[in-house]
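Try this one yourself first.
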């Protein structure tokens, strides 16, 4: 599998990375055996990065990943984990809270350090200046202590992520649902600021939290009704052509050479096989154009997340 440089870190990451939200049961039940099988298959395919968080399954994702990697796979897989978000509405971005959260993560992951540590979903902080100061400082302290090689932050609002890059000397960021068939603002609105500072950018949720799938999103998906309706229409168009909207969505993301790696939630071997198949097969340009036309009325539309305020739609 192609490896690409992750900003100025010196790490080279696989074009496809595993996302740990699904392993934390966010999209349905998964067994420990299935997790081990999918991680083994991913390593065999050349995948070398897995992204998880203390929040996913309230630690279950990290626990299952740690158990799977302990079975001889840790040296083949880099870990990115996230601290500061503990539950759906519970956050602690203080220095003490970040340390406490991360130390628990290391125990669940059965390792003494990770390659990347991020502050998770910082848009839910109640004091952004404190995030840019205290939270950033503890991340850098943990890096100096050798508990992580690189540090960064993740969130949904691109304006806040851009501010964090400008203020906090980050190595890596994770953005989600902002480079998809429906929304490409990660490249147009954010990537120049990251590239100017050598920050590695990981694109998560390329299928927009399930919007760009035949099965459609979970009930908790925060997208507005018009976006959900347009994505459902795109799925129906693909179904009528004997095609898979999710496969098209993955191919679209893989084709963006400026994004080092695309992270997608993968908890079962069949899901990994589908993502690898999308990587290997050429994109259907005619189908892509027709899907783009269906999604055009909601192109680049996003939604409100957390306490950061920025336009919900462009302009």
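Now uncover the answer:
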């Amino acid at each position: 599998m192609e490896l690409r440089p992750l900003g100025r870190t010196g790490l080279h990451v696989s074009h496809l990375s595993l996302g740990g939200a699904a392993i934390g049961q966010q999209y349905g039940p998964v067994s420990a055996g299935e997790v081990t099988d999918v991680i083994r298959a991913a390593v065999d395919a050349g995948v070398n990065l897995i992204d998880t968080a203390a929040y996913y399954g309230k630690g279950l994702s990290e626990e299952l990943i740690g158990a799977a990697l302990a079975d001889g796979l840790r040296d083949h897989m880099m870990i990115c984990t996230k601290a500061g978000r503990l539950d759906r509405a519970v956050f602690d971005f203080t220095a003490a809270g970040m340390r406490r959260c991360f130390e628990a993560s290391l125990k669940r992951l059965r390792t003494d350090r990770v390659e990347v540590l991020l502050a998770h979903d910082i848009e839910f902080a109640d004091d952004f200046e404190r995030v840019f100061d205290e939270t950033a400082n503890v991340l850098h302290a943990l890096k100096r202590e050798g508990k992580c090689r690189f540090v960064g932050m993740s969130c949904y609002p691109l304006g806040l992520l851009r501010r964090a890059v400008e203020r906090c000397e980050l190595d890596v960021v994770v953005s989600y649902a902002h480079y998809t068939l429906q929304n490409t603002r990660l490249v147009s609105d954010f990537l120049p600021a990251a590239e100017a500072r050598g920050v590695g950018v990981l694109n998560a949720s390329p299928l927009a939290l399930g919007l760009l799938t035949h099965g459609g999103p979970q009930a908790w998906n925060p997208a507005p009704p018009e976006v959900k309706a347009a994505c459902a229409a795109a799925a129906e168009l693909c179904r009528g052509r004997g095609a898979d909207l999710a496969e098209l969505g993955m191919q679209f993301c893989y084709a963006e050479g400026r994004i080092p790696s695309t992270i997608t939630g993968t908890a079962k071997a069949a899901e990994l096989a589908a993502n690898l198949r999308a990587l290997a097969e050429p994109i259907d340009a005619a189908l892509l154009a027709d899907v783009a036309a269906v999604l055009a009325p909601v192109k680049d539309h996003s939604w409100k997340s957390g306490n950061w305020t920025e336009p919900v739609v462009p302009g």
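Discussion: The chain has one domain: 3-210+249-282. Residues 16 and 276 are 8 Å apart (CA to CA).
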